[in-house]
Amino acid sequence: MNTMTFTNNMTGASYEYNILAPTRGPMVVDIRTFFADSGMFTYDPGFTATAACESTITFIDGKKGELRYRGLAIEDLASKHSYLEVCYLLLNGSLPTKEELTNFDLEIRHRAYLHRGLHKLFDAFPDNAHPMATLSAGVTALASFYDEHINLDNEDAYLEMAHRIVSKIPTVAAFAYRQSLGIPFIEPDIDLGFTENFLTMMRAYPGGKMRINANGKELIKEVEIRALDTIFTLHADHEQNASTTVVRGVASTGAHPYVAISSGIAALWGRAHGGANESVIAQLEYIGSVDNVEDFIKRAKDPEDDFRLMGFGHRVYKNFDPRAKILKGLQDELKSELNLDTELMKIANKIEEIALNDEYFIKRKLYPNIDFYSGVILTALKIPKEMFTPIFVIGRTIGWITQWIEFKKDKASKIARPRQLYTGE
Ligand code: CMC
Q1: Could you read off the pLDDT of 251-275 as tens digits, one per residue?
Q2: Is 31 contained in some domain?
């Protein structure tokens, strides 16, 4: 075993620690006994240099712009596989056979309904309630409908718990959205696949599927289903990001898995994380015209101004975000089919063009991230911006629940309880 020695230059005392070798990525110094050995804490706000767990789910190489789920490249998963296949992969470790996929798909369709009692919860929310608030509350409420102890030795039991939440999240999100408009809910349709079902629950008129309108036109185009399915895949997991860290933190206290997910939803809402997709479009609308872009770029660079370009920068990706690259490709592909050539898109293109060639952004390695492109595509899918982050939630739920299971099965897991550098009275 390779080791690393830490020397305290005040006392001359040395402490030796094992270096753990990952299958990919940086080596990790195992400092678990550091406090017991030295009486000192380590200081790392934002966990920029801390591996908080061991994981086999997702791998990111931030320098190369590489993202893999269970070892498979995101580019292949996004272009050759459906979101449901990706869910199965994350949860089970390998892609499904045809039969496994059929059974999984069927189960996800069957579990999409919400208990009637839960419908009443939505009525308590005001008109115009942000769907993220309703969604988080709805998922917490689900914990009370399925308040069973999850036995991690019983694979069927924990998979059922995971399938249920993946299946119900789109229904809760669509109901939250319709509640915010004050219009009746559309129940899930067992004849529809995961993504089409969600779009239908969002868009359909009361009472029916409405896949064909009165003029015989498709209400939901195949290309829209494919685009949204890809967006779900790109959001499915992202190793130890802020909301997943919250999910694991809540898991560490022994709380119900759906409460952990509800906490992840709350963490995702902020605009430094999943809320950025809504903020990107709000910011493009605020900028208003291509002529104003230069002024806003100046503001983003001004250290005295807290204005930041939404959809730019990432803690881990320092060359490009592979998810953003895939979405940019999808955006170009969809341009003609979905009427993407709007004023908003012109502003977005101008921002991208200037920022990618500007010393400030180059020096700090700030590139467009997934949220920069997803907003423009979701707008073209006629999805209102308040639903962008709920869509991130739908995609990410499989990642959260898979990470929850991994955390629970890991014998090294402990309650999340960091210490502090106290500087008060
Ligand atoms: N616009 C202008 N300057 C920026 C931006 C930005 N979007 N992002 C970072 N910077 C600057 C920052 O001011 C700092 O400059 P300096 O070194 O002079 O003080 C430097 O770049 C490093 O920034 P940081 O805040 O220390 O970096 P971080 O790793 O802590 O934060 C981030 C990462 C994503 C929170 C941040 O880049 C940001 O706020 N971006 C905008 C919000 C956004 O798009 N979030 C979505 C992230 S991707 C989706 C997801 O996975 O959640």
Answers
A1: 999 999 999 999 999 999 999 999 9
A2: yes
Ligand 1 lined by 24 (C-beta under 6 Å):
no
| Distance from the alpha carbon of residue 314 to the mean position of ligand 1, in angstroms | 6
CA distances from 158 to 90, 253, 418 (A): 14, 18, 29
Which residue from 231, 159, 171, 160 is spatially nearest to 197, judged by alpha carbons?
A: 171
pLDDT of residue 207: 62
Ligand 1 lined by 166 (C-beta under 6 Å): no
Residues 79-95 pLDDT 10s: 999 999 999 999 999 99
Cα separation, 417 vs 119, whole angstroms: 37
What DSSP assignment string belongs to 287-333? H-SGGGHHHHHHHHH-TT-----TTB--SS-SS--HHHHHHHHHHHH
Residue 23 covered by a domain: yes
Could you tell me the two tokens for 48? 């920029």
Residue ranges making up the domain that contains 15: 3-42
What is the tally of structural domains in the chain?
1
Mean pLDDT across the chain, nearest whole number?
A: 94
Proportion of the chain above pLDDT 70, given as a percent: 96
CA-closest residue to ligand 1 atom 4: 308
d(Cα 86, Cα 399) in Å, to the nearest integer?
A: 10
Catalytic, 371? Answer yes
Give residue 236 CA to ligand 1 midpoint distance, Å.
22
Whether residue 340 lies inside any domain: the answer is no
Reported as a single tens digit per residue, the pLDDT across 233-256 is 999 999 999 999 999 999 999 999
**Is 260 within 8 Å of 404 (Cβ atoms)?**
yes
Using a 6 Å cutoff on CB, does residue 308 contact ligand 1?
A: yes
Q: What's the whole-model pTM score?
A: 0.95
For residue 18, being part of any structural domain is answered with yes
Helix residue ranges, H only, 83-130: 83-92, 98-110, 116-123
Instruction: List the one residue out of 240, 234, 242, 232 whose CA is nearest residue 265.
Output: 242
For residue 282, pLDDT beyond 90: yes
